[in-house]
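ugh ok fine here u go
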Amino acid sequence: MHLGLVGLGKMGFNMRKRLRAAGHTVTGYDANPDVSDVGSLSELVQELPTPRNVWVMVPAGEVTSSVISELKSLLSPGDLVVDGGNSRYTEDCRHADDLAEAGIKFVDVGVSGGVWGITEGYALMAGGAAEDVERLLPIFDSLRPEGPREESFVHAGKVGAGHYSKMIHNGVEYGVMQAYAEGYDLLAGKGIVDDVRGVLAAWQRGTVIRSWLLELLVKALEDDPDFAEISGWVEDSGEGRWTVMEAIDNAVPAPVITAALFARFASRDTDSDAMKAVAALRQQFGGHAVRSAED
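structure:
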């Protein structure tokens, strides 16, 4: 396929590379001319064969809305826009309705994989009409890991379902990371365990708590033993907050995810080993910035 890709940051840049390696033609546009294939969105649209497929991979919120609005004025009926960023699911229907006025189709896709997706592949959660999702399957299949499609891709439902699924995914991620971090803090703080990293490494096979996040925690400790170089200040990207708000709105108890979110808030007032571990994990899987210990 020939895909237009808007946004060539940490995720988009690697996605373009992975898709090209799979044999697809990708024309990318970014405000940074050093990585962009064309000079403007207008040039991007002109490069694409019809019906066009344009994947938007820019920061959620006003930036995404601005790009989609400009694409509406440039694309033609039958073209398709994908929002693969971390937009809030409530924005998807608004974007879909706006594009539909011009006969343009819309699919929202939650993308998980971070900076490792280029080699490990991405998990994908799509929302939209069945025929629109089907149209993009060659792209989805090239982005996801090898193996059964159902283990890394899902057509989750109608417009909004993809981003809603990714939002809940990120809420769960908050809780899992916090549990590992608190376990690390206990291991490191007691003084009875001589090889904390070794204990965590020994949990990677055979135990019921083995996971990729655990592997990344072990790697983070290899790169920075005792997390001496980073601060315990942990940001939140917004999706954890949205997940907790959904839990409140639907009267669904979510004590673990809520506590994990509040722990991030608390990290900005105090410096703890547990939150250093969370900061290190976010850097490992997503390339998120951390603050140095000096800060």
